[in-house]
Amino acid sequence: MVPSPSAGAPVLTLIDASNFIFRAYHAIQHLSTSKGVPTNAVYGFTRMVLKTLKDLEPTHVALVFDKESRTERQKLDPNYKANREGPPPDLVPQFALIRRVVEALNLPALEMAGWEADDVIGTLARRAKAEGYCVLVVTGDKDFVQIVDEDVRLFDPMNDRRTGPADVKERLGIEPRQMRDYLALIGDAIDNVAKVPGIGPKTAVELLTQFNDVETLLTRLDEVKKPKIRQALESHRDSLQLAKKLVTFNTELPLDVKLEDLARRPVHEAKARDLFSELEFYKLLQEMPTEAPTPLAQTTETVVDAGGLKALADAARAEGRVFLIPAYEGLPYAAELVGLGVALPSGKSAYVPLGHRVLGSAGVAPAQFSEVFGPLLADAGVKKGGHGLKSLSLLLSSLGLVLAGSEDDVELLSYLLNPSRREHALTDLARERLRAELPPLPAVAEGKKGRALSDHTAEELAPVYGTRADAARRLAPDLWEELERAGLAKLARELEVPLLPLLAQMERHGVKVDLGTLAGISAIVDGECQTKLKDVHAAAGREFNVGSNQQLAQVLYTELQLPVLKRGKTGPSTDQEVLEKLAQQHPVARAIIEYRTLSKLKSTYLDTLPGLVAKDGRIHTTYDQAATATGRLSSRDPNLQNIPIRTEVGRQIRSAFVAEAGHQLVSADYSQVELRLLAHVAEDPVLIDAFLNDQDIHSRTAAEVFGVPPEQVTRDQRRVAKMVNFGIAYGLSAHGLSGRLDIPVEEARDVIERYFTRYAGIRRYLEDTVEQARKRGYVETLFGRRRLMGDLLSKNRNVAQAAERAAINMPIQGTAADLIKMAMLAVDRALRERGLKARMLLQVHDELLFEAPDAEVDAVKALAQECMSSVTQLKVPLKVDVGAGRSWADAH
Fold first, then answer.
1. In this structure, what DSSP letter does residue 193 have?
2. pLDDT over 70 at 445, yes or no
3. Average pLDDT, stretch 554-579?
4. Is it the case that residue 4 has pLDDT exceeding 50?
5. Residue 483 maps to which CATH number?
6. Which 3 state secondary structure label does DSSP give 163?
7. How far apart (Å, rounded) are the C-alpha atoms in residues 24 and 22?
8. Number of C-beta neighbours around residue 433 at 10 A
9. Helix-then-strand count for the chain, H and E
């Protein structure tokens, strides 16, 4: 550490981050990831920061950045720094990555609009000195000499040079406070601050030795001995005074930061590891602590009687929060709850055995559990935490219990921080964030092997589930803290967390399926499949196994001599994209596409759905709330999102989803929601006008692009416009449009160019979105949901272009996801407030499906339309199509 005259005083280390960035960039060249993302400045910056922290061991620290905005100095003098070129193109995208490094290292990052890092550092140094701190400014910038005194020192890590008052006097021949006058006299070429002609460092020192400062010098010019110097000072009086203002730090900024908040904090190890892995900083990964995670084995009390259960419930109510991890068998909507792991904020852990079948195993009877613990679970004032609270809610509902007050679902919170991550398993989160290894889950029965969960004793399961509940307790505060810093806490509290109980309710209700209708459709489609198969064989000239890619390739490329357009690992490709192109040359390709489409629908839905119908005659799909990068819900067992909407077979499959007797299904579907959102965010006047006047948007677009009156738009022109409208939000290229419409690339490029000529606001929005994503490293929705976009920086053209398409699409599709979730909450709340018996059953893309008693159908249609259309205010109206019928197909 730098010695200080105030031994034992806290040390505030202020790092000039901008100085570090540029020095790192020029010190390391040609470093990038395997995807081509430039990382030389990021790596050098990270190295410099870590070494500085290791060498100096500060008690308090902050990194100070220059804010990208017009500064007060540029208002004083437009020429200030006007000689500087912009940062190198390959440095610009690294700024966002550097901010992510700072966040992962858990270091405060400070900046202030209108002012430079110099001013922020100067202000903090003054305040810290007044509060008894020693201050160390880490920089290589000579301008900082002006704030040096007995309590404020400089440290240049590149030269291992420490600078105090005596050092300034020895090196420059002036006092630190005279640095402003010194720079004003000799100028600063780097910042484009003009010098006084004829005055160099030696003359400046002589003048300041004699006159102390610029102000005194200008009042005593007659005492300057050299005529040329005296004349130069006289003729440059105004520019000299301006120069001093430009080089002087403002140390009185109104910074909204407390010094105690700059106390050194531990690194976010999990986040740092993830980021260093992403950036391929393998050396830094090796240097991070490598000790194995500490086995976590929380001491867990097994609660087996009413007295112990009541004491646990009372303690949870007193602490206002409880963490719960269930042990269960089967699917959540029809599972048996074997036991419940419980953890309290105070650190107490317990396990409540509920369904152990081991002879002599003690436990709490379900009725007793419901009576004692039920009121606690239903008390929204006691906040609930865990991992997968939706599943817990479903499990408890099988006992007739309600889970209210869900808040700390660590799976969901982790997902919001990194939606591109594949899984957010509790074991992984504990290992990464707590450096703790959870006890393994017990082996369960697979066929005749192993034991069922309920065949384990309470003593075996107690430490496992009690420890898992305690891990959730430990994880939650840090996850919330990160969400707050990232600006995502509001999204979590107001949208995602409140959605948990509603999704559980929807899964519990399920939707009725008419097995007879399904069987009839299956028989018809099976016949159509056989017909299509014959068409394939006829077009090929012989029979072969269409399901064998090897045999199909033999027919297409060897026997029919069709061109090989793409190769896979095992030979010429036969994928959908290739077949679409080959269909233009031979009928066999089109026949194969049609056969595959029917065959896939049959195997995915018609053959599978009957086996997924529960005893109650209903299908209970599972919604994944933490699975997609855009925030969209996904569903599984079965995946109802992939049932085609516009094909005849898709409509037939939907006709098998029916209402109970005396009820109807009500569908409420946002119309063209992504295009409406595009109009809003792009602020394009032409698109906005079309929606405000409720015009056929595709006909209007065709009229604009092809230059014809709307009434003269042909079907083909409208088809082209529709493809462009929906493709633009997904970053559709000329090659993509060419393939979809089967037109030459040049013609497709001309169509897109004409589109952007008429819809200039959309072009501007798309370009700005990608540019901002490169700078910030992420894109976000209107409501603050984020997705990291590191691949935008790749030098690999294909990777970067794919990232551009994702960056363009995510704000639109992600906002649409936010909207439908907001609508779900609004409609559900309205149904309950009005005492209606209708229930929300499904959410598929932009559609909500309800089951309503016949007498409530009109009310539910009106309510859904009202709530969904007014869930937020856009520059264009949100249009909702509603319908009702005995089946999903009839309602949609």
1. B
2. no
3. 88
4. no
5. 3.30.420.10
6. strand
7. 5
8. 20
9. 37, 27
CA-CA distance, 874 to 4, in Å (whole number)? 59
Give the span between the Cα atoms of 549 and 571, in whole angstroms: 9
Contacts of 879 by beta carbon, 8 Å cutoff, 6+ apart: 670, 671, 672, 676, 694, 869
Packed helices 673-682 and 760-776: angle between N→C axes, nearest 10 degrees: 80
Token readout for 842 is 């499904």
Q: In which residue are the tokens 């920061």 written?
A: 49
For 760-801, give the DSSP string. HHHHHHHHHHHHHHHHHSEEE-TT--EEE-GGGG-SSHHHHH
Which residues, 6 or more positions from 448, have their beta carbon under 8 angstroms from its beta carbon? none
Dihedral class, residue 131 (left if φ above 0, else alpha if ψ from -120 to 50, else beta)? alpha
Question: Per residue in 129-151, pLDDT tens?
Answer: 999 999 999 999 899 999 999 99
Identify the sign of the CA torsion 797, 802, 805, 811.
Answer: negative
Task: Give the mean pLDDT of 832-840.
Answer: 97
Parallel/antiparallel/unpaired status of strands 321-329 and 383-386: parallel
Strand partners, 798: none
Q: Is the pTM of this model over 0.90?
A: no
Peptide bond preceding 638: is omega within 30 degrees of 0, i.e. cis? Answer: yes
Instruction: Name the residue range of residue 609's domain.
Output: 516-613
Cα separation of 673 and 629, whole Å?
Answer: 19
Same domain, 602 and 703: no
CB 347 within 8 A of CB 405: no
Task: Say yes or no to pLDDT of 293 above 80.
Answer: no
Looking at the structure, do residues 134 and 162 belong to the same domain, yes or no?
yes
pLDDT more than 90, % of the chain: 63
**Do 50 and 22 have their domain in common?**
yes
What end-to-end distance do the CA atoms of the chain give, in Å?
Answer: 71
What secondary structure letter does DSSP report for 277? Answer: H
Give the count of alpha carbons within 13 A of 303, CB side only.
27
* Whether residue 5 has pLDDT greater than 60: no
Least confident of 5-14, 342-351, 535-544, 869-878: 5-14
On whether both 303 and 434 belong to a single domain, the answer is yes
Who contacts 148 (Cβ-Cβ below 8 Å, separation ≥6)?
Answer: 154, 163, 164, 165, 168, 176
**Cα–Cα nearest to 344, from 372, 377, 321:** 321
Alpha carbon 257 to chain centroid, angstroms: 27
In the 8-state DSSP scheme, what is residue 570? Answer: T
Round to whole Å and give the CA distance between 67 and 581: 51
Cα-Cα-Cα-Cα dihedral of 842, 848, 853, 854, to 10°? -130
Question: What's 352's DSSP letter?
Answer: E
Mark which of 757, 780, 812 sits at the end of a domain.
812
Q: Which residues of 670-697 are buried (b: 16+ CB within 10 A; e: fewer)?
A: bebbbbbbbbbbbebeebbebbeeeeeb
- Quote the pLDDT of residue 483: 93
Domain count along the chain: 4
DSSP secondary structure letters along 655-683: TTEEPPTTEEEEEEEESSHHHHHHHHHHT
E strand or H helix at 192: none
Structure tokens at 744: 């030459």
Contact status, residue 853 vs residue 804, Cβ threshold 8 Å: no
The yes-or-no verdict on residue 6 having pLDDT over 80 is: no
Residue 353 sits in the same domain as residue 406: yes
Do 187 and 233 share a domain, yes or no? yes
Q: Look-up: residue for tokens 């919330």?
A: 480
Output the CA angle 802-808-811, nearest 5 degrees: 130
pLDDT tier at 153 (50, 70, 90 boundaries)? very high
Please give the average per-residue pLDDT across 822-846, as a whole number.
97
Token pair of 728 as six digits: 């633009």
Query: Do 429 and 567 share a domain, yes or no?
Result: no
Question: Measuring CA to CA, which residue among 95, 435, 450, 105 is closest to residue 291?
Answer: 435
Q: Are residues 386 and 483 in the same domain?
A: yes
Identify the pLDDT of residue 139.
94
